[in-house]
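User: I've been trying to design a sequence by hand for this structure and keep getting stuck. Would you show me what you'd pick, starting by listing the structure so we're on the same page?

Assistant: Good idea, let's start from the same input. This is the structure you sent:
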C-alpha cells in the first residue's frame, strides 16, 4: 500500500452520468412534487404526489435496467423497483399500497383521501425523492420557489 496523497477537488472523478431518461424523469418528479405541494384540493395533491413518486421510481429503473427484447407481460413499476433496487423495497411496497387511493382521487371520489393523507404523502414523496437521488448520485434539482414540498397546516 502506498501513502495517501491529496488530490485537488477539480481532479476528483465525477460520479457516473445518469442516462438522459433518468435525469428527465427526476426533473418531472420534482415538478410534480412542486405542483402537488401547491395544490389546494387534497385529491389532486395526493394523486400528483403519488405520480411524482412513480416518476422517481421510473428514474431508478431507467438508470439501473436495460430494455429487454421481445414482448413481455407488463409489470408494476413498484414490483420492478423492489427487484432492481432492493434497498427501496419498503418504499415500493408503501407506494404500491397507495395506488388504489390515487386512482380513487383521480376519479374525483369525494372521500378518497383526507387533507392529512395528502399532506403526509407530499412529505413522504419528498423524502423518497431525496433517497432516490442520493442512491443514484444525482444532484437534486433546486426548488422553483422556497420549499414547495412543505405543506402548511390548514386552519
Amino acid at each position: 500500500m502506498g501513502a495517501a496523497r491529496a488530490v485537488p477537488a477539480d481532479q476528483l472523478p465525477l460520479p457516473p452520468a445518469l442516462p438522459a431518461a433518468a435525469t428527465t424523469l427526476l426533473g418531472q418528479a420534482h415538478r410534480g412534487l412542486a405542483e402537488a405541494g401547491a395544490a389546494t384540493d387534497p385529491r389532486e395533491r395526493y394523486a400528483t404526489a403519488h405520480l411524482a413518486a412513480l416518476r422517481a421510481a421510473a428514474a431508478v429503473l431507467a438508470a439501473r435496467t436495460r430494455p429487454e427484447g421481445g414482448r413481455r407481460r407488463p409489470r408494476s413499476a413498484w414490483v420492478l423497483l423492489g427487484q432492481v433496487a432492493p434497498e427501496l423495497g419498503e418504499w415500493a411496497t408503501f407506494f404500491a399500497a397507495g395506488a388504489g387511493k390515487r386512482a380513487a382521487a383521480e376519479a374525483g371520489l369525494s372521500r378518497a383521501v383526507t387533507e392529512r393523507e395528502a399532506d403526509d404523502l407530499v412529505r413522504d414523496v419528498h423524502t423518497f425523492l431525496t433517497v432516490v437521488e442520493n442512491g443514484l448520485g444525482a444532484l437534486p434539482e433546486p426548488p422553483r420557489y422556497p420549499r414547495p414540498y412543505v405543506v402548511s397546516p390548514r386552519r
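That's my pick for every position. To get oriented when you compare it with your attempt: DSSP finds six helices and no strands in the chain. The two ends are 63 Å apart (CA to CA).
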